[in-house]
Design goal:
65% helix, elongated
């Protein structure tokens, strides 16, 4: 879908250089993918503090019981 955006030229040039991208489209696409990935990782990290782990859990015994 064609979209016109006013993107800071300095940021775009730096993204091209740092990301090793050849085109502006490639740089913007890569940036959006990384943005989404980081946001999803934050959700996972937030959830990590909500689990109760069994301190005496024996994974070998648990496998044998299956």
């Amino acid at each position: 879908m064609p979209t016109n955006l006013a993107i800071d030229d300095r940021l775009l040039q730096e993204a091209l250089h740092v990301g090793g991208c050849r085109t502006k489209k490639e740089a913007v696409t890569k940036a959006l993918e990384e943005f989404i990935e980081r946001r999803q990782q934050r959700k996972i990290l937030k959830a990590l503090g909500t689990f109760q782990f069994r301190k005496r859990w024996n994974y070998k015994q648990d496998r044998a019981d299956r």
